[in-house]
Design a protein that fits this description.
This protein is mostly helical. The chain has two helices and no strands.
């Protein structure tokens, strides 16, 4: 913008009042902002759920007994002397 154009714009604004923003504009902006905040909150909660699920899955994989890299299928691994059932 040149110096003359700027001076012309200033003169027009001083002579005539500036246009007013629409009355609904503030409400619309605030609604969009609150929607973005809600979406961000939902994203954080979803991320936390996924993180906890991943941590639980890793914990289960590390806690369960493994035999040759596979989960045991026989019941011998889970029996102890206290829980052995003697057959009659």
């Amino acid at each position: 913008m040149t110096e003359q154009e700027l001076e012309k714009l200033i003169a027009e604004v001083e002579k005539d009042e500036m246009l007013q923003a629409p009355s609904y504009l503030k409400r619309e902006i605030l609604t969009k902002i609150s929607g973005k905040k809600r979406a961000r909150k939902e994203l954080v909660l979803y991320s936390l759920k996924i993180g906890f699920a991943t941590a639980a899955a890793l914990m289960v994989l590390t806690v369960l007994p493994m035999k040759n890299g596979m989960l045991p299928v026989d019941d011998d691994v889970f029996t102890t002397d206290e829980f052995v059932i003697e057959e009659p």
